[in-house]
Task: inverse folding
C-alpha cells in the first residue's frame, strides 16, 4: 500500500492517477444512467422467497403461462350512478364484464394486465389510467387500483422521486461543505469526486445486475445515492482535515499529503470494511428487497472509499495550497482545538458521572418504545395516498372489502370441493368465485374476504383459512393479503436474524482492528443504546407529531444496520486518533483528550453531512422511507454530538488502560516500565 500511496502523491504520477480514473471510471459511470432499466419493483422483490403466498404466485404463473395482474377500475357517484356514468364505463371498457355494487353507487371493471414483462405492464397500467381519466363527468369519481395499481404506485414511489432525491442530496452536501470549509473553491473538489463515485457505483451495480444476477430495486437505488454521498463526503472531510493539519507542519504539499494519507488510510479502510460487511449481513434476510440492498450498498461504500483515497488526493495536489483560500494553511500555524478541547476538559473532570448521566439520558429516550406499534398497514403505507389506495378505499365503501383482491387458494383438483366447503364456512369469507382447474391437476379457488385486503381483520381471515386447510395436501393460500401476512412474519424473522449477525460481524471487525475485547464491546454497546434511544424518540415524533400509524419493519431493520455500521465509523475515526496521540504523547489520559479535540470539528461536520443526506429520503412518499431517513439522520446527530463526543471519551477515561485489554501496553504506545511524558491537556 505504501508504494500505491507514493504513486497517488507523486509529483508526476498524480497526473497518471487522474487520467486512469477518468479513463476507467467514466465509461462505467455512463451506464449508471440506465439503472432504471434493470430495476425490479414487482411484488416478488418486496416479499419473502419461501412462503406460501410466493409459492402460490409462482404456481399460478407456471400453470397459466403468464403472471396476470388485475387492474381494477372503480367508478362511483355518491348520489347514485346515472345513465351517463354507465355509458362512460361502456366507452372505456367495451366487451369487459363489469360488476355493479348493491347500493347502485359504484361499478368496477376488471382489466387483466400481463405482468410477465414489468416494463410493458407498467406502461399498460399508465395508459389505462390516462384512458379512464379523460372526459369524466362532474361528480363521478374514477380510480384505478387492484394488484396492477399497487405495483405501479410502488414503483412510482421511487422513480418519481429520483431527481428530487438527487437534487436535495446535492444541495445538502454543497451547503455543508461551504459552511465547513468557508472557501469558494475547496468545496467543489469533494463534491465533484463524490458525484463521480455515485455514478460509478450505479454503473457497477448496473453491470452486476446484467451479468452477475444481483437484483436492483427502486428502494436500493435511492438508498445507494444517499449512502455514497454521505459516506463519501465523510471520507473526504476526514482526509482533507488531516491534509490541512499536515500542511501546517510541512512546506512540501506532496509530502504533507503522503503523511496525511498514510495516517488516515487505516481508519478509512476500517470504516469502509465495517460498513460494507455490516450491510452485507442483509443477504441473509428473507425479504428479497432487504437482501438485495446488501450488495448494492456495499458496492457504493467501496466506490466512495476508493475515490476518496486515490482520485481526491491526486486532485487536491494538482490544485495546490491555494484551493483552501482564504484560509490557506501555512507551515508553523498553530492547530486550534476550539470548543472540543473545552468539551474534553469538562468531560475529563468527572468522567464517571458524565458517562453514567449520558447513559441514563439515552435510557429515558428508549422508554418511548413502550407505546410503539410495529408494522404499517398497507392502506397507510403512503403519507400522501396514491391512486391505488384511494381506489381501494372507494371500493371498500360500496363492495365487500376484499372484492378487488381475492385470496388465491391452490390445491389438488381432487380436493377442490372439500376445500371450497371449508373456505365458504370460514368466518371472514364473503363468497367464493367458481373454481378453475389449471394444468397439472391443480385447482385455483378465489376467495373474496369481507374486509379490505390490507386490513388486520383480512389477515386474521387468511390465518383462519390456513389453519382450516392444515392436513389437506398441496393446499396453499396466496394473494395480496396473504403476501402481506407472510411479509410481516418474514420481517420479524429478519429482525431476529440480521441484527445479531450484524452486531457479531462488526464486533469481530473491531476486535481485529483494535486488538482488544473491551473496546469493541463498549463501542457496540454505545451504538446499540443509541439506536434504542433513536427508536424511542423517533416513535414519539412519528406518532404524536407526524401521525404515522406505526414503525415500519423496513425502517427498523435498515435503520439499525446503517446506523450501527455508520455509527461505529465515527468511533473508529476517533479511537484511531486517540491511539495515535497516546503513542505520540505516552499518556492515555492526554491521548483521549487530545484525540477528541483534534477530531471533534471534522467528525461533527461529517455527521451533519451524513444526517443531511439521509434526511433527503424524506422526500419519498412512503411512510417507512421517511421513518428510515429520520431515524438514521437523528441517530447520526445523537451519536456525533453526544455519544462519540461525551459518552465514549468519558468511558475511555474511566476505564483507563483496561479499555485496550487484552492488548499489552506496548500495543498502543506505552512500553512497560517506561514513564510516559505528560503533555498539557488541550485548551
Result:
Amino acid at each position: 500500500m505504501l508504494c500505491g500511496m507514493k504513486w497517488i502523491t507523486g509529483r508526476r504520477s498524480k497526473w497518471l492517477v487522474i487520467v486512469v480514473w477518468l479513463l476507467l471510471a467514466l465509461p462505467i459511470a455512463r451506464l449508471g444512467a440506465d439503472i432504471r432499466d434493470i430495476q425490479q419493483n414487482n411484488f416478488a422483490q418486496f416479499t419473502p422467497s419461501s412462503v406460501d403466498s410466493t409459492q402460490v404466485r409462482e404456481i399460478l404463473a407456471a400453470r397459466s403461462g403468464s403472471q396476470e395482474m388485475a387492474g381494477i377500475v372503480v367508478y362511483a357517484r355518491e348520489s347514485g350512478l346515472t345513465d351517463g356514468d354507465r355509458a362512460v364505463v361502456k366507452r372505456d371498457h367495451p366487451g369487459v364484464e363489469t360488476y355493479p355494487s348493491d347500493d347502485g353507487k359504484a361499478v368496477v371493471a376488471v382489466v387483466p394486465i400481463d405482468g410477465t414483462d414489468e416494463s410493458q405492464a407498467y406502461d399498460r397500467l399508465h395508459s389505462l389510467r390516462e384512458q379512464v381519466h379523460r372526459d369524466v363527468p362532474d361528480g363521478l369519481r374514477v380510480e384505478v387500483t387492484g394488484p396492477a395499481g399497487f405495483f405501479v404506485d410502488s414503483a412510482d414511489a421511487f422513480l418519481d422521486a429520483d431527481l428530487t432525491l438527487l437534487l436535495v442530496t446535492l444541495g445538502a452536501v454543497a451547503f455543508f461543505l461551504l459552511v465547513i470549509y468557508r472557501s469558494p473553491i475547496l468545496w467543489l473538489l469533494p463534491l465533484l469526486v463524490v458525484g463521480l463515485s455515485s455514478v460509478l457505483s450505479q454503473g457497477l451495480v448496473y453491470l452486476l445486475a446484467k451479468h452477475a444476477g444481483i437484483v436492483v430495486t427502486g428502494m436500493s437505488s435511492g438508498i445507494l445515492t444517499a449512502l455514497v454521498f454521505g459516506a463519501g463526503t465523510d471520507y473526504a472531510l476526514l482526509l482533507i482535515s488531516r491534509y490541512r493539519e499536515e500542511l501546517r507542519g510541512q512546506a512540501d504539499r506532496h509530502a504533507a499529503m503522503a503523511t496525511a494519507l498514510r495516517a488516515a488510510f487505516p481508519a478509512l479502510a476500517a470504516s469502509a470494511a465495517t460498513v460494507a460487511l455490516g450491510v452485507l449481513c442483509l443477504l441473509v434476510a428473507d425479504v428479497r428487497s432487504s437482501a438485495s440492498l446488501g450488495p448494492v450498498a456495499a458496492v457504493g461504500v467501496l466506490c466512495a472509499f476508493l475515490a476518496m483515497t486515490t482520485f481526491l488526493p491526486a486532485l487536491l495536489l494538482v490544485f495546490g495550497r491555494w484551493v483552501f483560500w482564504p484560509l490557506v494553511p501555512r507551515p508553523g500555524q498553530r492547530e486550534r482545538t476550539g470548543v472540543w478541547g473545552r468539551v474534553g476538559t469538562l468531560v475529563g473532570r468527572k468522567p464517571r458521572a458524565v458517562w453514567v448521566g449520558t447513559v441514563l439520558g439515552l435510557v429515558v429516550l428508549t422508554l418511548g418504545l413502550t407505546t410503539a406499534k410495529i408494522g404499517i398497514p398497507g392502506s397507510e403505507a403512503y403519507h400522501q395516498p396514491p391512486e391505488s389506495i384511494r381506489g381501494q378505499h372507494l371500493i371498500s365503501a360500496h363492495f365487500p372489502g376484499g372484492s378487488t383482491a381475492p385470496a388465491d387458494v391452490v390445491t389438488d383438483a381432487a380436493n377442490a370441493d372439500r376445500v371450497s366447503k371449508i373456505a365458504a364456512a370460514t368466518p371472514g369469507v364473503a363468497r367464493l368465485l367458481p373454481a378453475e382447474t389449471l394444468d397439472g391437476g391443480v385447482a385455483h379457488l378465489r376467495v373474496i374476504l369481507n374486509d379490505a385486503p390490507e386490513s388486520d381483520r383480512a389477515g386474521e381471515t387468511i390465518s383462519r383459512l390456513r389453519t382450516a386447510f392444515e392436513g389437506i395436501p398441496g393446499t396453499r393460500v396466496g394473494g395480496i393479503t396473504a403476501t402481506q401476512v407472510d411479509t410481516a412474519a418474514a420481517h420479524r424473522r429478519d429482525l431476529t436474524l440480521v441484527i445479531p449477525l450484524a452486531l457479531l460481524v462488526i464486533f469481530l471487525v473491531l476486535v481485529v482492528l483494535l486488538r482488544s475485547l473491551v473496546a469493541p464491546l463498549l463501542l457496540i454497546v454505545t451504538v446499540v443504546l443509541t439506536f434504542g434511544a433513536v427508536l424511542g424518540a423517533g416513535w414519539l415524533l412519528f406518532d404524536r407529531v407526524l401521525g404515522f400509524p406505526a414503525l415500519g419493519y423496513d425502517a427498523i431493520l435498515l435503520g439499525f444496520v446503517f446506523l450501527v455500521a455508520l455509527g461505529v465509523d465515527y468511533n473508529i475515526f476517533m479511537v484511531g486518533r486517540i491511539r495515535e496521540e497516546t503513542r505520540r504523547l505516552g499518556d492515555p489520559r492526554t491521548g483521549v483528550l487530545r484525540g477528541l479535540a483534534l477530531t471533534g470539528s471534522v467528525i461533527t461536520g461529517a455527521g451533519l453531512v451524513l444526517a443531511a443526506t439521509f434526511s433527503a429520503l424524506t422526500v419519498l412518499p412512503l411512510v417507512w422511507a421517511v421513518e428510515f431517513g429520520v431515524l438514521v439522520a437523528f441517530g447520526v446527530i445523537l451519536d456525533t454530538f453526544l455519544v462519540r463526543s461525551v459518552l465514549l471519551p468519558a468511558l475511555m477515561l474511566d476505564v483507563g488502560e483496561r479499555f485496550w485489554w487484552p492488548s499489552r501496553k506496548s500495543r498502543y504506545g506505552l512500553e512497560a516500565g517506561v514513564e510516559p511524558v505528560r503533555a498539557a491537556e488541550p485548551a
